[in-house]
Write a structure and sequence with these properties.
This protein is mainly alpha-helical. Helix content is about 65%, strand content about 5%. The strands form three sheets. Strands 2-1-3 form a three-stranded antiparallel beta sheet. Helix 3 crosses helix 5, helix 14 packs parallel to helix 31 and helix 19 packs antiparallel against helix 20. The longest helix has about 35 residues.
């Protein structure tokens, strides 16, 4: 039949509509005398005529349905593909289709078992296929073609869109340059130089220019979209590659940036579909990332992280590294440090410590910090016992005192015995040799003169008279001067030993030493001058006396071994062995040598362990309340608080274990315990509660929910409405009094008390306001503009 002028006009309009929508196919339908254009949707009751693809300079044609042929509608549809040279099968007409369907349905009925009719009823007549019409067949074909083409179109458009996005990413510097130039032109002189290229006068290619180059040389022109969905998806895919530039790495970071790129694309292209201006399209694309990024920026400026950033802003990189090391050490020794403790300065709390004190008094953050402090004494006790246990089994006070004194007495005795063993042979050889009376007489005259000076009836006079009598031989009828070396040696040794011993041990009185010492020297010199064997024995005796003097000392200055051996109490022993006022690292080396020379180094280790254990118990019992959060710091200060104490204790550990392994663990524990005293708890929580805390603690009934529910019941007389209002009021109160106060203080406290607290605080302190979410959206938009 002749083609109506109305249809020709519809086709022209469909062509224009297709060109305007980037060659999107326009479907043409007929409903009576009316022609309807859609993008694939079938109007109710309409018959499908075909699709129009707009091409400039080409007459519109219908594809997939009927075609314009010589001004008439033909029943055979043309396809946009070129005809092939192969022989095509003859087209089926409607009668052929109907006949074939009838045959297939007849075969199905013959193969199916017959269902007998109920008694008294006739078997139902076989149902034939519903009659087919041209409209129903064409509609079904169009429906199937649309489904098959949609998936293929989406895949093709997505692939090309990603290619365009990659190409456009290389033009982001140019697009940014173009954007800043535009801003510069708006600002006038204020913005001069804002859009200048870092490459001087070079104008960098923009993203559209980079994409156009890639289409000409690499990826080819964009395939004509066959569906509106495919076109939209292809446009959105272009936003994904640019969003990956910069930002967080790792699977989660990449996935997040892709998500914001996708959201930007959907928003921007959605605005384009709605006919919005390019500026509105750009703003829509920026909105997802900017919204989330803006929220994070607000949190960064006013939320919990702002408090942490302010408190940690002045911490230097070296201090961050030291804090990380201390935090790791705390976990290793079993006394985890909070972040502000590990980062605290040598003196005082520091800003982070003050923040922790403030948080300890809050309703939500306080329990987290206080929980750490409540566990601290037990952790310190376990860590201390672990280190002390490395020194050996625990010992009683009496056992440690006895064994330590025994080591010193044995050392002195062994040194004296060694000296005697070395000199005995020479002294024995010197004994039989006589000494001339003329040599002994001056000694007797000296003693007699001293007796006359001090008085014969004084104590010293009587002592001198006793010594003088020993210089005479009374075995004969008349006394004679003693000339035997053996006898004179005995007198000398007794006088020498008396002078070397303290008075309370049987030695000479200190007031007598000035008189007796010259006499002893005169006897020694006389023997040495008249007896060569004695001279050799005396020289060897002096040489062998050095170790004895080091251990035992002299009558005026006792040696370290003698001091320890004469200790009367554990406290006196402690002062002698570890008090830095009395002991130095050199003294520790001497003490360790004494224990080692006796083969009793384990006793030294046991003593040190007892000292540390006793000092720890004292630090614990000094606390009247039982649990002391500062137990570790108190103990550390009592034994390791000043440099001299540290030097002495470290010296003991070095002597006990020269490899340094035992001391390494102890020193690490001391470093950690020093920081445990940096937390001061705020007393406000235990003293008073705010009204919100009082409500949230459930010490009062739910006033807001109860009041709102009562008002609703009074005004509406409806229990159901009153119950609903009560629930809403309860939820609101819980949010205000419980959830809301927890948001800032609990977040801060969690960051302060987490195992990786130092790492968290460092990340928050250095966090920049521009979020990765906002950056992903910005990059996506720049990559498509």
């Amino acid at each position: 039949m002749p083609l109506a002028s109305t249809l020709q006009k519809v086709l022209e309009e469909a062509k224009a509509q297709s060109i305007a929508s980037r060659n999107k196919q326009v479907w043409v339908w007929q409903d009576g005398d009316q022609y309807i254009r859609t993008f694939g949707e079938r109007p109710k009751g309409a018959n499908f005529l075909g699709r129009v693809v707009g091409l400039e300079g080409v007459e519109p044609e219908l594809y997939g349905g009927a075609a314009i042929t010589g001004g008439a509608l033909a029943s055979q549809a043309r396809q946009p593909q070129q005809a092939t040279a192969q022989q095509q099968p003859a087209p089926l007409n409607l009668d052929d289709v109907q006949k074939r369907i009838s045959e297939l349905q007849s075969q199905q009925q013959q193969s199916a078992p017959a269902t007998p009719a109920a008694p008294g009823q006739e078997a139902p007549a076989p149902q034939g296929p519903a009659p087919l019409t041209i409209d129903s067949v064409q509609a079904r074909i169009a429906e199937l073609e649309g489904q098959n083409n949609l998936a293929k179109d989406i895949g093709v458009q997505t692939a090309h869109g990603l290619g365009r996005g990659v190409a456009g990413s290389f033009g982001i510097p140019g697009s940014a340059q173009q954007f800043t130039s535009w801003i510069s032109s708006l600002l006038g002189k204020t913005g001069e130089g804002l859009g200048s290229s870092p490459f001087g006068a070079i104008d960098l290619p923009t993203s559209p220019e980079a994409t156009a180059w890639a289409e000409r040389n690499v990826i080819g022109d964009r395939p004509t979209p066959q569906t509106s969905t495919g076109r939209f998806v292809g446009d959105v895919a272009e936003y994904l590659p640019p969003s990956l530039i910069g930002g967080p790495t790792g699977l989660a970071g990449v996935a997040g940036r892709l998500g914001y790129g996708l959201a930007s694309g959907v928003a921007s292209e959605g605005a384009k579909e709605a006919g919005a201006s390019p500026l509105v399209q750009a703003l829509a694309g920026l909105s997802p990332g900017i919204a989330v990024g803006g929220a994070k920026m607000l949190t960064h400026q006013f939320g919990p992280s702002a408090s942490i950033r302010t408190a940690a802003g002045d911490i230097e990189p070296e201090q961050w590294q030291k804090g990380t090391t201390l935090s790791q050490a705390g976990r290793e020794v079993g006394v985890p440090l909070m972040g502000h403790e590990a980062l605290s300065p040598e003196v005082g709390q520091g800003p982070l410590g003050m923040l922790a004190t403030k948080m300890s008094g809050t309703y939500a953050g306080g329990p987290l910090i206080r929980n750490v402090m409540e566990q601290r004494p037990t952790q310190v006790a376990q860590a201390a016992q672990k280190e002390i246990g490395k020194l050996g089994p625990s010992s009683t006070v009496e056992d440690v005192l006895s064994r330590t004194k025994d080591v010193m007495n044995s050392a002195i005795k062994n040194a004296e015995e060694h000296r005697t063993e070395l000199t005995k042979g020479l002294y024995d050889a010197a004994g039989p040799m006589p000494i001339p009376e003329s040599a002994v007489a001056p000694i007797i005259d000296t003693i007699s003169s001293k007796i006359d000076e001090v008085g014969p009836k004084t104590g010293l006079g009587k002592e001198l008279a006793s010594i003088r009598n020993k210089l005479f031989d009374n075995t004969g009828e008349t006394p004679s001067i003693e000339t035997k070396t053996s006898r004179l040696q005995t007198v000398y040794k007794e006088l020498r030993d008396s002078l070397n011993m303290p008075p309370d041990a049987g030695g000479a009185q200190r007031s007598h030493v000035g008189v007796l010492s010259p006499i002893a020297g005169q006897i020694r010199d006389t023997l040495a001058e008249n007896n060569p064997y004695f001279a050799k024995a005396d020289a060897l005796y002096k040489e062998a006396s050095a170790p004895v003097v080091r251990l035992y000392g002299t009558s005026d200055e006792p040696g370290i071994a003698r001091k320890i051996a004469e200790a009367k109490s554990p406290s006196q022993l402690r002062d002698l062995m570890i008090n830095p006022d009395n002991v130095s690292p050199d003294t520790v080396h001497t003490i360790a040598d004494i224990f080692g020379s006796q083969g009793r180094s384990k006793d030294l280790s046991a003593w040190l362990g007892h000292y540390l254990e006793n000092s720890f118990n004292k630090a614990s019992t000094d606390v009247g309340t039982g649990k002391n959060p500062k137990l570790g710091a108190d103990w550390r200060n009592s034994i390791y608080g000043n440099p001299k104490q540290r030097d002495v204790l470290n010296a003991y550990y070095s002597e006990i274990d020269p490899t340094g392994k035992a001391g390494e663990g102890f020193q690490k524990l001391m470093q950690v315990l020093e920081k445990t005293g940096k937390t001061q708890l705020s007393p406000t929580q235990s003293q008073k509660k705010s009204f919100g805390q009082l409500l949230a603690s459930e010490e009062l009934p739910n006033l807001s929910g109860l009041g709102a529910g009562s008002a609703a019941l009074y005004t509406t007389k409806s229990p159901l409405i009153a119950s609903g209002v009560f629930v809403i009021g309860s939820a609101l109160q819980n949010f205000i009094t419980k959830t809301l106060p927890k948001l800032p203080s609990r977040t801060v406290a969690k960051n302060l008390t987490a195992p990786d607290s130092v790492e968290r605080l460092r990340a928050l302190a250095g966090k920049k306001p521009l979020s990765s979410e906002a950056a992903a959206s910005v990059m996506s938009i720049l990559g498509t503009r």
